[in-house]
Amino acid sequence: MRRKLSFILLSAIFFLLIAAGCSDETANEPENGEGESDNVSDEKAAAPELEAMTTEEITLSYASWANHTLNEFLAEKFMEKYPNITVEIVQLEQDGWNDHLTNLASTGDLPDVYWYMGNVDIPIRNGWLGDITAYFESDPESDDILVTMKDAGYFDGEQKLAAPAAYQPYTIYLDENLFNQLNVDMPSADWTYGEMIDLMQEMTVPEQGIYGYNTFTKLVTMAPIVNQDAYGEFGWDGEQYDLTTDWADSMNQHAEYVRSGVHAPFYDTDEAEAAFGDRLLWAASTGRIAMQLDAWWTMGLFAEPEFVDKGMKWVPYPVPQGDNAQSQHKPAFIDFGAISSATEHPREAYELLKFFGWGKDGWTAKLEAFEALENEDGSLMFKHPDGLPLINDEEIWNGLQELLPQSEYVSNFLERVKEPIALGGASHPGFQTFLDEVYFGGEYGDVEAAIINGEVNAYDISQNLTDMINQYREEALEELFW
Question: What keywords are assigned to this protein (predicted)?
Fold first, then answer.
């Protein structure tokens, strides 16, 4: 497996160097559709065309935890495009999602197209994932997928068993009013990881009760990806993980900032009560936090009166680029979809998966839905689009931007988030098991908490963690594929 991936990576790199005249900058331009290992490069050029869709009357079922009204809207648009296909939306509670899929699969009712949640080992082990390799590699639309998402779903390096279905980027929010209050210039949209770390320290003013940052998303997720031009968490480079450098650096840095008061007090603690007068008050709603490390969906929340009326002006920034990075790789929340291995209509199920996921026709319909769908009281159902496109299509991205606040911050953000990197659980075999059994449930308990509490130093355990996660991956691949 490693020899195969190594050959693929070396071949891709050799091709890029020739095509780009050995220019690192050119080789990493996302518009080129290059810049990472490509399982389908030469084969795809000679691949057969997609087979025709059936003209028979058929029914396909679909399940995801996306907004139900949006799912129904998209289903109607798909049926307009393919009048012979009826789409049935299967509603499941998001809590216990994979258990619901297990129950459906046990009775032969697994939806034709569905999202799975979290641990990719579950659908692989249960044989739920239909092989879409031939369809994907024959599909001209596959060329338009964001460059870092093209190989996602090739879990064994050979078969494409799933595809990115929804994308919500990590987002750093800065309170512009607080920066102005402290007479500190806002950073460039092209800020670097090191600049962000320094700003956290600079924006901490203990005598005014002001903290440099608060976290939902984490430095230990960001740093290895952006600083190592990685293709996954924990420094995944396409062959192995490495926690010995940026993971260890960022974990110790975060621990130091928590202990020294650069990071805001944690929710529901005595420290939070002492600082804010309410232990249950979210730090980002106090007006005393310079940066909130968060997610795309929080942009709409920060526009609410609860924040604006308190004098806050939260503006979005992309996760900063690595200090010496050649890419714009940034961590992202990526939901994955698949077709059922038992579907009677795999060709049509693939088209449905694409329409609800990355396809341009589907995204055209989504933009219409974001702009038009209303609640019963006549208010817009989507005050804020619930994700970003998975294709590098100027028309779609411009259409999305028109639905967002018309600010330079938003424009700059969108220009710099087209190389998303999926989190490990849903995209890497063995990853979630490692987290459960070692990272959050091993000899140190919660590794991150142990480091923050000073019980262990990240550098002392980083090599052991590196060895273990690589072992977990190899064992998972052997169990699931070989």
Answer: Signal, Sugar transport, Transport
